[in-house]
Amino acid sequence: MAQTPEHFDTQLAALLDKLSRLPPEQQAKLQPLVDATRARQRALETDVAAAHDALADWRISMKYAIFAKEAADRERKN
Fold this sequence. Notes:
78 residues, 2 helices, mainly alpha, single chain, 88% helix
């Protein structure tokens, strides 16, 4: 099930709220994990956007290829 970036941000905010209630030494231990999670989420969002763009480009290329093939077929018939 796909989650939106907003859903991720909401869940992360809830987690950070819970972490803020921990003693400072435990917070310090967990902060690198939070930072790494944020970085992975940003990278994932970037990769997904790039995949969507690539798919859109591929669709356009396929439509053009089909159009060109159909045009060539029409020319051969005439």
